[in-house]
Each structure stands twice: as C-alpha cells, then as structure tokens.
Amino acid sequence: NVYYSKVKNQLKMGQDIGADASVLSDWMAARWIRLGYVQEIERKRITNFENIRLQFQDASYDPGRRASLPWRSGFTGVAWNKEELPEGLTSVSDLWDPSLSGKVGVMSAMRDTLGLIMLDAGVDIEGKDWGDAEFSNAVNTLRTQVSSGQVRSIKGNQYKEDLKSGKTIAAIARVGDVMQINAEAGDKWGFAIPEKGGVLWSDVVVIPIGSTHRSNAEDFINFYYDRSNAVKVAAATSFISPVDVRQPEIGTIPQELSRNLMIFPSEATFATTKTFRTLSQGEEQRYGAQYQTVLLAGA
C-alpha cells in the first residue's frame, strides 16, 4: 500500500512510474489488474513459461496469466524459540496458551495472520464459501488476544527483531524470515506449518501501464524462468521459485538446501497450505478497515 500510494496517480494517468516491471503481492497485483494499470504480457516471448509449476500458471484474478506472472512464494506458519519452547508448536491455538502471555509476536500482513487464524478455525481460506462472518470471527479472535496482553505487538518485518531480542518467543511468521534470523543469529528458532494448514503467499511481476521497455522486462522474466537460473535464485534467497526445478539443476546446489522442503516443497508439502482467496473490491475495503482497528490496538 505504501508503494501504491506513491505511484497511483501516475498509474491513473497512464504515465511511466520509472519501473519496467513491478513485483507486487498477489492481492495488490489483482488491484492493479482490476484498475487497468498494467500492460498485457506478450506470452510468446516467455518461452520458458512451460517450466512454471502448474499451480502457478493461472490465477483467479488473472485467468491465463495474461497480465501477471509468478515471481516467488513462501509459507506462513508458527515460529518459536527452541530453547524456550523445546517441544515446539503445532497450531495457531498454541500461541494462545497462557504461559506465553506477552511473549507472542504477530505479523501485520492481514492475509498471513488472519488466514492462519481462519484456517485454525476450520475455514477454507482458498474457497468461496466464507465471507464477513468468518472474517469477523478471526478479527475478534486476534482482538481478544491483543487486548488481553497475550500478543505483545503486531508488526511488519520488525517482528523478526523481537524474536531475535527475546521480546517474543513465539510468533506467526514466514519461514523465509525464520531461516534468515537463524542464519544471522544461530539456529535458535523453529518453524512449522500448523496441523490445520499454513498460508501460501505469492508475489507476482507485472508490467506497469506506462512502461516503455516491456520487451526488456519480458526477456528478463523469461531468463528468470530458465531452470538453471531459478534454482540458483531460490537457493540464494530461501524463497520458493514458481519454476518446477528438477534434476539435473537441483543437483547443482548443496543438499541441505535441495532437501529443504520449505524452499523446494514437495506436492505433499504444498497440500498442507492454502492461498487466501482474492477479495472483491468491497471486501477489500471492509476487511482492511476492520483489520486496521486491531492493528492500531496492537501497535
């Protein structure tokens, strides 16, 4: 939303925003597409499109991937300090245990946090059979935990610093962030996809309406989709590549990475997660305003 607020007036006028391509959260990409702020991608230039995993080759907000292409993904679940909680965590409900009062961190990303809470309540966040009632229930669950002091704070990327400093010992977290702080400060934190399901989030690449170098962007995207390049990027960033990486490419990186199911997931691992469905414009406005009231209380 911060980036969007800076460029939306230029986008409305069809002007160049100074980016040949933009990598956005999938829900933000859906907004840009709905508002006509992107160019159609010339698919014949993306000759490596067939390398993309089938599950990423389509999107409800962009059927056939005519205006967006998958860039990277990751899992959101629960994290904990392994010294403080040697038994680990297996569910979102574990975070509400009284013994963790004041020691729980929560991400501010609405779809990650409320998506997990809804999954914990048995809601299929990917399906269309939920609406205002289910969303409100999740908001109220979080509001209760914030007002009671169970949740220490709701933060953006800064939630990682609270884990590192010990201010929190458990959190709703993205696995890539957990791997990052483990690399920076020692292997002190565990991560799990909750038993009732984790959230699969994705960023996608679009070409803004005013970009004058569409072909350059398309060539770069196609380069990225080459399997030999994709495996290197995934190994270096700890994000899930949209590319279906196989042998021999997977054999070019260390086994501790190639066997890490959080970076190179199996179909069984993907099956334990759900993607938060695309919201309508009205839902996006209502739910965003509703969630904001909890964010203000948890800041």
Automatic annotation (TrEMBL):
<dbReference type="GO" id="GO:0015846">
    <property type="term" value="P:polyamine transport"/>
</dbReference>
<dbReference type="Pfam" id="PF13416">
    <property type="entry name" value="SBP_bac_8"/>
</dbReference>
<keyword id="KW-0813">Transport</keyword>
<protein>
    <submittedName>
        <fullName>Spermidine/putrescine ABC transporter substrate-binding protein</fullName>
    </submittedName>
</protein>
<dbReference type="GO" id="GO:0019808">
    <property type="term" value="F:polyamine binding"/>
</dbReference>
<keyword id="KW-0574">Periplasm</keyword>
<dbReference type="InterPro" id="IPR006059">
    <property type="entry name" value="SBP"/>
</dbReference>
<dbReference type="InterPro" id="IPR001188">
    <property type="entry name" value="Sperm_putr-bd"/>
</dbReference>
<keyword id="KW-0732">Signal</keyword>
<dbReference type="GO" id="GO:0042597">
    <property type="term" value="C:periplasmic space"/>
</dbReference>
